[in-house]
Specification:
There is one protein chain. The chain has one helix and four strands. By secondary structure, the protein is an alpha+beta fold. Helices cover 35% and strands 26% of the residues. The mean pLDDT is 91. The protein has one domain.
Length: 80
């Protein structure tokens, strides 16, 4: 079973953007800034685009995942 969200980057080509991949329906890839989730957002839909209220809920969950992932990376860096 895949995790609900995956964190990805393409730092070889762009050091300023990261991606949050939603693996459950509606599947999508959310492009965002390394500095702030809500900057430079663009959603690439794999499945048909859902209703606005579903998108809003999905973006809230993705933002939480993004922030938790970066916080976890910061904590790991502090340990070493």
């Amino acid at each position: 079973m895949l995790p609900k969200f995956l964190f990805a980057d393409n730092s070889r080509f762009s050091t300023e953007l990261v991606y949050v991949v939603h693996t459950e329906t509606p599947r999508c890839i959310i492009q965002c800034s390394v500095e702030e989730f809500d900057e430079e957002n663009e959603i690439f839909w794999i499945d048909p685009e859902p209703a606005p209220e579903v998108i809003e809920e999905l973006m809230d969950m993705a933002r939480d995942f993004y922030e938790d992932t970066l916080d976890n990376e910061d904590e790991l860096e502090e340990e070493y």
